[in-house]
From TrEMBL:
<feature type="transmembrane region" description="Helical">
    <location>
        <begin position="96"/>
        <end position="115"/>
    </location>
</feature>
<feature type="transmembrane region" description="Helical">
    <location>
        <begin position="41"/>
        <end position="61"/>
    </location>
</feature>
<feature type="transmembrane region" description="Helical">
    <location>
        <begin position="314"/>
        <end position="331"/>
    </location>
</feature>
<feature type="transmembrane region" description="Helical">
    <location>
        <begin position="274"/>
        <end position="294"/>
    </location>
</feature>
<feature type="transmembrane region" description="Helical">
    <location>
        <begin position="67"/>
        <end position="84"/>
    </location>
</feature>
<feature type="transmembrane region" description="Helical">
    <location>
        <begin position="188"/>
        <end position="210"/>
    </location>
</feature>
<keyword id="KW-1133">Transmembrane helix</keyword>
<protein>
    <recommendedName>
        <fullName>Cell division protein</fullName>
    </recommendedName>
</protein>
<keyword id="KW-0812">Transmembrane</keyword>
<feature type="transmembrane region" description="Helical">
    <location>
        <begin position="244"/>
        <end position="262"/>
    </location>
</feature>
<feature type="transmembrane region" description="Helical">
    <location>
        <begin position="343"/>
        <end position="360"/>
    </location>
</feature>
<feature type="transmembrane region" description="Helical">
    <location>
        <begin position="146"/>
        <end position="176"/>
    </location>
</feature>
<keyword id="KW-0472">Membrane</keyword>
<feature type="transmembrane region" description="Helical">
    <location>
        <begin position="521"/>
        <end position="542"/>
    </location>
</feature>
Length: 547
């Protein structure tokens, strides 16, 4: 097992949906099983489709160890095949397409999930599949696949929202270039609009959930990166890290850029476009952007973007695919250097693969050490948790053991009184508030009952006011000892204050979504079913007609 910096947060997401599925007791908004059973809203704000998909996989595998191994393999294979198939789509030689796929798979952008459970990797692996359809923008034959582009983009929206922003920027570049050169501008515009409309309909649950929660609540952002420059990348001649591109990718990217600039008129349009877009994202991910100065003008960058290095994964997709095209062009010209280039690329693969192996091996040794958690930031009650207890918990067939043994006080998306900027965020110490007001309040018994309702019971020695270790939002419904209570006073992170009577007290917490949001979820599910059935029927008929 590897318990990286983001592992506990995402494991709680997947545990919550796994338990919903296993118990057939669903609550799309309220987390009743994960996140200390505090009723927090996470799933609708953070990749709902993939949350439930990963929850299903976790439930079927029944162990955190099996789950992590399966997801790691899935991410790596999906990443490699995505870049390989995109390269092949752009007529690259198979050898060079395979090399590009492996280089992408072994880069930190992808192994970031394996090493630290960074969810950006989930978004990055889907981008090549979208680009496979989007490259048709550059083709004047007007063959843009509406269904393929719409479904692939919808999958990304249902997975990782920041990756959607990166991909949308890339698609805009491709569309503008294609539109300018197209002789069938209206037809291109219509097909792209149709694909966008399909993606919107398939993700109505995402938009409905985001609108409902953000329109009625102020939510705490992710941790603000105050020195955002330090989170950008730089070229380096060492091993690849989160802020260093590494010798292999640095050399290959520079070689591709220089080659394309020198031979710009001789290279294909696809090569030119992919190289230019790759350069754009590479510059954005680097310290050349003077991110600290930018963040002063746009403070939201410290929480929305956090780490400019995230964009190097997008740059890697474009530049590695462009590299495979360049090598193919040289091969077709019978260039005498092609054998040396192929050998150098294989050597590069060996280096990046070895680097990935060393990184994983180092973390594997941590798992077997006296401190098996590789990233201990914000892990609560660390001194009370023995190494053997952690290992037993995550090897156990009882999935709750893991998330209950290792708890992290991540405050993302908690409701606050007002909008919290980066400076105020640091002053309020939200991690400490979560630990004090949610995690450490163990005297409350929590149980999930029918209709996705969370039940709290506790004993009070006298009549007194008490903050509950649950969280309430605008549409949360609270019943105290059988009586519905409204306009409850809350603290800085949304814990409600109630007046407890002497003896046993009971609180029921549920979330009543609006009719509009409910309908958007139903429409989204129906749209997915109809789209997938229609696609299967079309493919069957197409194959029958072809044969």
């Amino acid at each position: 097992m590897v318990l990286g910096s983001d592992s506990i947060f995402h494991f709680n997401r997947f545990f919550d949906t796994a338990e919903q599925i296993a118990n057939k007791n669903f609550n799309y908004f309220q987390a009743n099983y994960g996140f200390q059973q505090a009723g927090r809203i996470i799933t609708p704000l953070y990749g709902p489709f993939v949350s439930y998909l990963m929850g299903l996989l976790l439930m079927l595998l029944g162990s955190w160890l099996k789950f992590q191994l399966a997801v790691d393999l899935l991410i790596l294979v999906t990443a490699a095949y995505g870049v390989y198939s995109l390269s092949k789509r752009l007529h690259s030689n198979q050898d060079f397409a395979i090399i590009s796929g492996i280089l992408f798979m072994t880069s930190i952008s992808i192994t970031g999930w394996v090493l630290n459970q960074h969810f950006t990797s989930f978004g990055l692996v889907l981008i090549p599949y979208i680009l496979k359809y989007a490259v048709d923008f550059l083709d004047d034959t007007n063959k843009v696949n509406i269904i393929g582009l719409g479904i692939s983009m919808a999958l990304l929206i249902q997975t990782h929202f920041l990756s959607v922003i990166f991909t949308t920027i890339a698609l805009l570049f491709l569309f503008i270039i294609g539109f300018i050169s197209s002789t069938k501008k209206i037809a291109l515009l219509v097909r792209v609009f149709a694909a966008a409309l399909l993606a919107f309909i398939l993700t109505l649950n995402v938009w409905g959930g985001l609108f409902e929660v953000y329109s009625g609540n102020h939510l705490l952002s992710t941790w603000p990166t105050m020195n955002i420059d330090a989170a950008a990348i730089k070229l380096s001649f060492q091993s690849e890290t989160e802020t260093q591109l590494g010798i292999v990718l640095s050399v290959l990217f520079l070689a591709q850029i220089i080659y394309t600039i020198i031979h710009f008129k001789q290279t294909s349009k696809n090569n030119q476009v992919f190289t230019l877009i790759g350069i754009f994202f590479l510059v954005l991910s680097s310290r050349l952007m003077l991110w600290n100065a930018l963040s002063k003008s746009i403070p939201q960058l410290t929480t929305l973007l956090q780490f400019p290095s995230r964009m190097r994964g997008v740059a890697a997709i474009f530049l590695l695919v462009a590299l495979s095209i360049s090598c193919t062009e040289l091969l077709n010209k019978h260039n005498s250097f092609i054998s040396g280039i192929r050998g150098s690329l294989i050597l590069g693969i060996c280096f990046t693969t070895f680097n990935a192996y060393v990184n994983v091996s180092d973390l594997a040794s941590i798992w077997h050490s006296d401190q098996p958690i590789s990233a201990t930031n914000a892990i609560t009650n660390q001194k009370k948790i023995s190494a053997d207890k952690v290992r037993r918990a995550f090897r156990s067939n009882n999935l709750s053991d893991g998330v209950k043994t290792v708890e992290k006080s991540t405050p993302d998306y908690l409701p606050t009184y007002t909008r919290i900027d980066a400076q105020h965020y640091l002053k309020m110490h939200p991690y400490s508030l979560v630990e004090k007001n949610i995690i450490n309040k163990k005297q409350f018994n929590k149980q999930v009952i029918n209709n996705g309702t969370l039940k709290l019971t506790w004993h009070s020695h006298n009549n007194k006011s008490v903050y509950l270790p649950i969280v309430t939002y605008q549409h949360s419904q609270v019943k105290l000892n059988g009586i519905t209570t409204t306009h409850l006073k809350t603290n800085a992170i949304g814990n409600p204050l109630v007046f407890a009577k002497r003896g046993t007290n009971t609180v029921l917490l549920n979330y009543q979504m609006s009719a509009l949001t409910h309908d958007s979820i139903i429409l989204s599910i129906c749209a997915w079913i109809l789209t997938l059935i229609s696609t299967v029927i079309f493919k069957i008929r197409f194959h029958k007609h072809s044969s």
